[in-house]
Amino acid sequence: MEATKKTEEEGNENAEKVVEEEEFSASEIEYVSYGGEHHLPLIMGLVDSELSEPYSIFTYRYFVYLWPQLSFLAFHRGKCVGTVVCKMGEHRNTFRGYIAMLVVIKPYRGKGIATELVTRSIQVMMESGCEEVTLEAEVTNKGALALYGRLGFVRAKRLFRYYLNGVDAFRLKLLFPSPMSQSSLPIVADTDGSHWHNDHIPIEECSENTDILYLSVVIFNIKSI
Ligand SMILES: CC(C)(COP(=O)(O)OP(=O)(O)OC[C@H]1O[C@@H](n2cnc3c(N)ncnc32)[C@H](O)[C@@H]1OP(=O)(O)O)[C@@H](O)C(=O)NCCC(=O)NCCS
Asked: Which residues are in the N-acetyltransferase domain (predicted)?
């Protein structure tokens, strides 16, 4: 039994190596928005295997049934290699988007797939009238923090022991320019200043993004993504 398991594991590792070694061009990756129940097991499989937080099927359904247009999947030769799951709605007088889950499987990382998935969701949020986008990421998740930092997200808050595994989270935020303010950048657009006061981040832990937070609001330039 053990031997069989080991052989299977070796098989999986080899399969990953084959993909790693095999060059694929970005144009081979196909992006589709959530298309129905047949996509659900693909999303769940990816998220369950890569994110620390466990989600029930009800959570997945909540997102993809209510906001199917905000969830995307990436396929390579028929295989699902990445996904993003989001929602949007009113929050304290602001219409905002929220990125709930983002995963790209290991052999496909570093090729811009997560950036493309997130960009597609953000584009729909923007077109739907969202004023901002938020999400949480583990403070230890360097990859995700770098990715969202590149897209213009800033650290709005540190949430103590936010995850079930006991790790703190950063709440990241991206503001879209309001139609009134686009001509006079940069602006201070957040009416709820408490979002922006970060009690929890010691100054030495602040990244360049956090510094920006104290100076001005970073405006998301959709043309750059
Ligand atoms: C985080 C994750 C989604 C990134 O996916 P990806 O497809 O590799 O991301 P991209 O190729 O679009 O990366 C874009 C940029 O993000 C940054 N980045 C991504 N992963 C990084 C890493 N591990 N270390 C440092 N920077 C990283 C880089 O700046 C990168 O640009 P570059 O390759 O030109 O330097 C992927 O690593 C993953 O699925 N991780 C596990 C699940 C997870 O942590 N999800 C996020 C929860 S908030």
From this structure: 27-177
